[in-house]
Design goal:
This protein is an alpha+beta fold and about 200 residues long. The protein folds into 2 domains: about 70 residues, no CATH class; about 110 residues, 2-Layer Sandwich (TATA-Binding Protein). The chain contains 6 helices and 9 strands. β7 and β8 form a beta hairpin. The protein is elongated, with a radius of gyration of 17 Å. It starts with a helix and ends with a helix.
Length: about 200
């Protein structure tokens, strides 16, 4: 679906909603005709009912794909509790239709390889919280208020290459369609690479 068509449909999906109900289900704040929505380490304002998306302290409007994703999140949010159970992208509903995340993770692995300190610095710079779990370094990110994500670095050795995993809380499909969750994973990968010192 072309982006402009997707944007128009996302607006229609949100039309007529009860904004305070949407805010309660999504974890957004609604006040003075605006939703305030956090996205990783960024904050967005969404006018409602007159839909306009802007980023706090940004000069330019956000890219259209991100505007669509944020509107989808508000329209789709079901209010389910975070599951505290991690799943890979391929275990999300119908993920096989969009399974391009392996390329993003391969690029991320190439960027950090055995650079654990660079990975840690990038994770902290993007607003991640260190996690204690398997792997040599891991961070938990709040992609959106009700969608935690994790990124885990496994250092390689002479026999096994380094690898990186991007995971989603199992509740994620209650908040976004699977393709939008792919976009979240791709964004996380790209943002971590950008934050590498």
């Amino acid at each position: 679906m072309p982006l402009d068509t997707a944007f128009e449909k996302a607006i229609k999906d949100l039309e007529g909603c009860a904004p305070f109900v949407v805010a309660a289900k999504s974890g957004a704040n609604y006040e003075d005709g605006k939703f305030t929505l956090s996205f990783f380490d960024r904050t967005f304002l969404i006018d409602y009912p007159g839909i306009r998306v802007e980023e706090v302290a940004a000069k330019n409007p956000p890219p259209e794909w991100l505007q669509v994703l944020l509107l989808h999140y508000l329209a789709t949010a079901r209010g389910n509790a975070v599951a505290d159970q991690w799943v890979s992208y391929r275990n999300l509903p119908d993920a096989y239709l969009f399974d391009k995340l392996n390329g993003a993770m391969a690029s991320l692995t190439h960027t950090f390889s055995n650079d654990i300190e660079g990975f840690r610095k990038a994770g902290l710079s993007l607003g991640g919280s260190p996690m204690t779990r398997t792997g040599d370094a891991a961070f938990r990110f709040l992609a959106l208020p009700r969608i935690p994500m994790a990124c885990i670095l496994y250092l390689g050795d002479e026999e096994v290459a380094s690898s990186i995993s991007i995971l989603y809380d199992a509740v994620a499909p209650h908040y976004l369609p699977t393709y939008d969750l792919f976009l979240l994973g791709n964004y996380l990968s790209t943002a971590l690479e950008r934050h590498k010192s």
